[in-house]
Amino acid sequence: MSSLSRDEVANLARLARIEMSDEELVSLASEFTVILEAVARVQEVAGADVAPTSHPLPLRNVFRPDVTTPSLTPEEALSGAPASEEQRFRVPQILGEEA
């Protein structure tokens, strides 16, 4: 069983520059003991035959393959536009921008 003494918790608090009262140090020592026991139980379960993962479910690529397909020519794309210029849609000027 892993545990931390009051003095070890005091040293950790000093390193972290956290001021703690004697009651807090004793209380935190017992809380650390519970945490360390829980970690020890997890380490018992995780065996060498279990591969480490970053996600609980298997991840897979959900994107389709990038395949080139025929598309509209610039003239076809602009055929329904009210105005075009240099193979681009022409839109009204906004916000007082200069042309």
TrEMBL record:
Residues 61-99 are annotated as: Disordered. SUPFAM superfamilies: Glu-tRNAGln amidotransferase C subunit. InterPro entries: Asp/Glu-ADT_sf_sub_c, GatC. One of its GO terms (biological process) is regulation of translational fidelity. NCBIfam families: gatC. HAMAP family: GatC (MF_00122). PANTHER family: GLUTAMYL-TRNA(GLN) AMIDOTRANSFERASE SUBUNIT C, MITOCHONDRIAL. This is Unannotated protein. It comes from freshwater metagenome.
